[in-house]
Amino acid sequence: MGGRSLTRTEAERRARLLTVERYDVAVDLSELTTGSRVRCESTITFACHLPGAETFVDCAAAVESATLNGVVLRSAVEGRIALTDLAERNVLTVVSATECSADVQGVHKAVDPADGETYVYTDFAPDYARYVLACFDQPDLKAPWAFTVTAPAGWRVLSNSGDPQIEELGSVRRWTFPPTPPLAAYNTVINAGPYYELRRRGAGHDLGLFARQSLASILDRDADELFTLTTRGLEFFAGKFGMPFPQHKYDQVFTPEFPGALENFGCVTWMDWFLRRSTPTRAEWDIFSRYLLHELAHMWFGNIVTMRWWDDLWLNEAFAEFASNWAAVSVTSYTDAWTAHLAGEKLRAYFVDQGPTTHPIRRQVRDVSEAKATFDAITYPKGASVLHQLMTYVGEANFSAGLTSYFATHAWGNTTLHDLIDAVADAGGRDLDQWRAGWLETAGTDRLTLDHDADGFALVARGPDGRPRPHVLAVGAYERSGDHLERIALVEVEVAGERTRLDLPAGADLYLVNDEDLTFASTRPDATTRDAFFRNAARLPTATARGVAVTTAWDMLINGEATAAEAVQCLTGVLAVETSASVMEPYLDLAVEAADLWSPESERDELLRAVAAVCRSLSGAGAFRKAALRGFARTACGLEEVAWLRTEAGEDIDLQWRAMVREAQLGSPTAAEAQALLDRDPDPDAWISRLQVRAATPDAAEKKAVWQTLATDRAVPLASVHSVATLFWSSGQDDLLRPHTEAYLDLVATIHRSGTQQATIYTKSLFPLFAIDPTFVERAEDLAAQAIPVVRTNLLDRADRMRRILRSRG
C-alpha cells in the first residue's frame, strides 16, 4: 500500500476537468472489536467537462473492485486508479479494504488499557483519505459526502453531519448520515466507539462532547468550561465573519491516541491528552481555550472556505491561530491570550524564522509531500502574528468588514491569497500590495533597533533583504517609580523605511521597542541601556510589556548576544513579580531551558538553584502554586528538596510523579516507589508516568529499555513522546546517552513511516540534547539532505537549535 504524492500541476489539471457532484461512502467497522480490517465502498458521482478525457482517482488502500459507468477497471498503481474515456456524467464505485496498524495512515484503532474498549478514528489530513477510500484527494474538488457506517451495536458513530438514522441489525448497527455541505476530503471524519456523551445547547446550536468511558469523570469536570468556550466562540465568529455556523450540531470528540486536533466540519477530533488527569492549571486552560477556538475558527477558515492548493495553507492555519487569540481576548476570561501567544508560540516562530528552514508564509508548493513540511511555526504563529499586525494596520472594524465580504463571496468554495487580501484592502481603503509582498511572500524576520544620537531617538529597521516591511508599532519610555517602572511616553509609529525618527523623552530608565506587541520583529534596546535591560524587565507594569522584554532577552540568547545567565536573570526577575497565571508556566519552561540546556556545565547547578528558589517562593501563592511546584520538580538540586516537594504535593499524584522523576534523575532508586504509585494512580495512561521515571534514571539498562519502547516500538502516545524523550536526554548523563545519539541518526531514514504528525514529533523530540558535539550536528544536517521534506525541515530546525545551544554552552 502506498502512492505518489499529488502534484500541483496534476491537481490543477484534474480540477479543470472535473466537477464532483457527491460522494456516497459505506464504511464497515464491524470487525474492529476483534480484528483490524476496515472496508469501504465509495461511490463518486462527477461530471467531466471534456467527454472522452482521462484522469485518475486516488486510492492507496487495497482495491477489491472498481467500476466506472459499469465498466470494470484495473487495480490501482501507485495509489491511483486510471479513469479513461470519461462521459459527461460519471458514476465510479470502488470497494477497498484497509488494515489498521501503526504504519497505516488515515484510520486508527486504539484499545483503552483501562477497560479493553476499542475506539476508532479517521484522520484524513492532509491527503490521507486515499489510504482508506477512493476519492479525489485535493482541497479544491469539494462535494457533499453521505456516509453510511456499520459498527458494533454497543458503539456510537459520529460524523460531520448530525442526526443519523440508526438501524438495529443484530450484533451491529447501521448509521446513515445526511449529506454534508460541499467539503474537501480532508474535512470529513468518522469517529466510533463506546463513547461517553454530554450534550448542551449553546449559541443556538446542539453541542456535544465525547470521551472514552474511562475518562468520563474528567469530561464531567471540564464540561462547563468547554461548553462555555464553544458557545462564546460560535457567537463571536458568527458576528465577526458575518455568518453563523451553518449546522445545528457541533460535536467535539476526545479520543485515545489521536495525533493532535483536527477541524473536521461539525465534528472536531481531539487527542484526549487535552483532558488533563490532574486539575488543569490556568496556563493549561489558556492553551486549551486557544486550541478549542482555533479548531472552531476552522469551520469558516478551512471548511466553509477552503484554500485552492496547499501554498495557501496559511489561509486555514494562520487565520485560525489568529482568530483563536482574537476571540479569547474579546469574549472569554482568557484575556491574556496574546501575551501567552507571545510567551510560547510566537517565540518559536522567531526562532524558526531566523533559521535555515524559514520560508515565506505563502510559498509555492509543488506537491502534497512538500506541503506537509509547512505545518510549522511560520505558517501558524508567525502567520497569526502577521494577521494581528494587519488588523492593527487597517483597523479592527475594517478588518472584520473585509472578512464578512470574503465569506459572503466565497462560502463553500476555494480561494487564494489575493481573494482574502483584496477583501480586506477594499474594506480598509488601503493598498495592501506592498504589505502582501513584504509580509506574506518574503521570508525572515525584520530587526528593529533603538538608536540614540545627538539629534534624538530613531528606530532603525532592517529587513531580511535590506529594506524593512511596513510596520505599525509602538515604542514605550519608562522611568523608575519606587520599585517599579512607570510608562511616561508611548510613541506609535508607522515604519516605511530604514530609519524613523521618534519623539521620545531623554533619560528614561528603559525603552521598550514593540511595546504592546503589535508587530512581528526581532527587537533590541539601545546600547546604553542594554545591561540594565535584563535587570529592569521585572519592573515593567504590565504582563504584555514584561512579555516583550522576555522575548527580547530570549532572542538575544538564541542569537549569541546574551548569556544563559542573563536570560535566567531576566526570567527569574519577571517570574518573581508576574501577575498573569497564563504566562507563568511558559516562563518557567524558558527559565528551566536556559538554565539546563543553554548554560555552560560549570554554571548549570547555580542557575537551576536560582530557578528553584523562585519556584519555592511562588509555591505559597494559590493561583501559582501548582505551576511553581512543577517548576521546582524540574530544578530541585538535592534529595532533601525532593522530599520537601513530596510533602507539599500531598495527594496530588501528578506532582508525586514529577517529584519521583527528579529523584530518579538525581540517582536515587525509585523502582519500588514507582510501582506503588502506579498501583494507586487511577489514570488509564499512568504507565506513561512510570515510563518517564525510567527515562530519567541514570542506568544503562533502563535507557536501553526506554529507547526500545519510545523510539523502536513507538508504543508511547504521540502526546507524551516529547515529555518522555526530554527526560531520556537528561543533563549530566552523557556517558549513558552517547550510544543512543547514534541510534537517533539510524532512525532518520524510516522516521516518517507513520505519517506527517508522527514524523514531526519523532524527529524533533528524539533529537539528542546532550552527549553530542558540532560534528554530530553536521552529520544530522547531512542526513536531512536525503530525507523527505517533513523530516528534512524538522531535522534542520533541531540541528540549528543544538548548534546555537552548543555555542551558548561554550
From TrEMBL:
This is Aminopeptidase N. Residues 510-803 form the ERAP1-like C-terminal domain. GO terms for molecular function: alanyl aminopeptidase activity; metalloaminopeptidase activity; peptide binding; zinc ion binding. Signal peptide: none annotated. Keywords: Aminopeptidase, Hydrolase, Metal-binding, Metalloprotease, Protease, Zinc. Residues 101-186 form the Aminopeptidase N-like N-terminal domain. It comes from the Bacteria. The lineage of its organism: Bacteria, Bacillati, Actinomycetota, Actinomycetes, Kitasatosporales. Its EC number is 3.4.11.2. GO terms for cellular component: cytoplasm; extracellular space; membrane. Pfam families: ERAP1_C, Peptidase_M1, Peptidase_M1_N. PANTHER family: PROTEASE M1 ZINC METALLOPROTEASE, PUROMYCIN-SENSITIVE AMINOPEPTIDASE-RELATED. InterPro entries: Aminopeptidase_N-like_N, Aminopeptidase_N-like_N_sf, ERAP1-like_C_dom, Pept_M1_aminopeptidase, Peptidase_M1, Peptidase_M1_aminopeptidases, Peptidase_M1_dom, Peptidase_M4/M1_CTD_sf. Belongs to the peptidase M1 family. One of its GO terms (biological process) is proteolysis. It catalyses: Release of an N-terminal amino acid, Xaa-|-Yaa- from a peptide, amide or arylamide. Xaa is preferably Ala, but may be most amino acids including Pro (slow action). When a terminal hydrophobic residue is followed by a prolyl residue, the two may be released as an intact Xaa-Pro dipeptide. Residues 229-436 form the Peptidase M1 membrane alanine aminopeptidase domain.
